[in-house]
Fold this protein.
Amino acid sequence: IDIVWSLVRRFDEPQKYKPFISECTLRGDLKVGTLREVNVKTGLPATTSTERLELLDDEQRVLGVKIVGGDHRLRNYSSVITVHPETIDGRPGTLLVETFTVDVPEGNTIEETCYFIQALINCNLKCLADVSEKIAALNSGHSNTAEAKL
């Protein structure tokens, strides 16, 4: 859980586990209200996104982010990520829950919008699990020592 949270809480380095982000520039001091400008890799219908840190609670392991600008169609998008300890097949693991709200873009349905966002989230979670497991393996000197239930 500590490895997963150490990656998720890094508002200044989302590209460590979000494969569609190529670069992040921070405006602020990693406190609530801080803005980040992220550059999106080609292949998505956007090139930039401006995001504000809404909540960062290390004790409860909660991160809240709101998109406040950019050249994309996700208006009023906000998400909250919570990280929890979980037992998976009798071994310690991590459960990550991400919830989001967003306005449905004109010309799209609720289903299309949710499908697109859920596909992005699932890709991010898969990458987060892979990166976390690699870090855990390096820390322990063994492979496959950590699992993430995402």
Summary: The first strand starts at residue 21 and ends at 27. The mean pLDDT is 92. Helices lie at 2-8, 110-140. Residues 77 and 102 are 4 Å apart (CA to CA).
